[in-house]
Amino acid sequence: MLPRLTRFVPALLALPLLAQVNIKQAGDKISIEIDGKPFSDLYVGGEGVRKPFLHPLRSATGKVVSRHYPMAQVDGETKDHPHHTGLWFNHGDVNGIDFWGSSPMGRNDKGAKIVMKKISQVKSGKQQGTISGDFEWQAGDGTAVLKEARTMTFYSGKDRRVFDIDVKLTAVKDAKFGDTKEGSFAIRIADALKEQKGRGKMVNAGGAAGEKQVWGKPSPWVDYAGTLEGEAVGIAILDHPSNPGHPTHWHSRAYGLFAANIFGLHDFYNDKSKDGSRTLKAGESLRFRWRIVIHPGDAAAANIAGEFQKFSAMK
Fold first, then answer.
1. Average pLDDT over residues 265-270
2. pTM (2 decimals)?
3. pLDDT digits 0-9 by tens, 241-252
4. Where are the domains of the chain?
5. Which CATH architecture is the domain 32-312 placed in?
6. Is 219 in contact with 56 (CB distance < 8 Å)?
7. With the C-alpha atoms ordered 114, 116, 119, 120, is the resulting torsion angle positive or negative?
8. Is residue 28 over pLDDT 90?
9. Residue 175 predicted with pLDDT over 50
């Protein structure tokens, strides 16, 4: 029997090398490696963590396209909005509770948090890898407002990084998502890519460019691109056609916030007669799906319109 075992050992040892998307959990951090290179870490708990978030986000060439602060201190980097942590999803008004601005470093912190209840799947694979888990949106006193079921799928790719986020929110009790621009699915991009001071540019699916033309407007996707360490690179957020409120509106700012938000209509249109709020009765759900594409070049060179068509075709 020993010779047979010896023959199998090299094959078994080689199996992890076949996976192009490697995902590993160590406590409250889940690390994602794509094509042999680190991509990001998903933080799901720990001291001061008020929501699950990805940090840092890297391009296929290893450039960090998201801001480091407040997770790390980098000389010369902006240090505003400490609740902007990498890539995240929450909202600024759910039954009057501010999940968006919740941060131990915030001026008016009330302690709202999204708590990890269970990570049900951490799966690596040759073409893709998956993280699935259950979370609970809690007020500062620990009262549950929403249950969240989330699946994140990361894909192998030569020149770009593509991943999907699928979120189902279910009301524990009646839950009203208030009309506010402070939300909801967001990335805080690296300072070098932001539009402020003319370094980057946001463009939507209709070809409108710049904060004044993109902020508060509906669009199925927006791309935010610029030059980072001498390399042309961009980030696109794609809103699936099945999402509530599609095409989403955009709370995307020249200073580096990049967010999709269906709820903030009276802010976006500066019109108090508009109401983007939505109420879930206890047990009712909302489901959102987004695709993120980190790519070389601008939206046209990366064919983000084509990427959206592929994403739209997914059932």
1. 97
2. 0.94
3. 999 999 999 999
4. 32-312
5. Distorted Sandwich (2.70)
6. no
7. negative
8. yes
9. yes
Query: At 87, phi and psi to the nearest 5?
Result: -120, 130
Summarize pLDDT for 87-128 with one digit per residue, the tens. 999 999 999 999 999 999 988 899 999 999 999 999 999 999
> HEC profile for the chain?
CHHHHHHHHHHHHHHHHHCCEEEEEECCEEEEEECCEEEEEEECCCCCCCCCEEECCECCCCCECECCCCCCCCCCCCCCCCCCCCEEEEECCECCECCCCCCCCCCCCCCCEEEEEEEEEEECECCEEEEEEEEEEECCCCCEEEEEEEEEEEECCCCCEEEEEEEEEEECCCEEECCCCCEEEEEEECHHHCCHHHCEEEEECCCCECHHHHCCCECCEEEEEEEECCEEEEEEEEECCCCCCCCCEECCCCCCEEEEECCCHHHHCCCCCCCCCEEECCCCEEEEEEEEEEEECCCCCCCHHHHHHHHHCCC
| Separation between Cα atoms, residue 195 and residue 210, nearest integer Å | 8
Look up residue 164 and give its two tokens.
Answer: 């999907």
Measure Cα distances from 22 to 62, 88, 163, 197 in Å. 16, 21, 14, 38
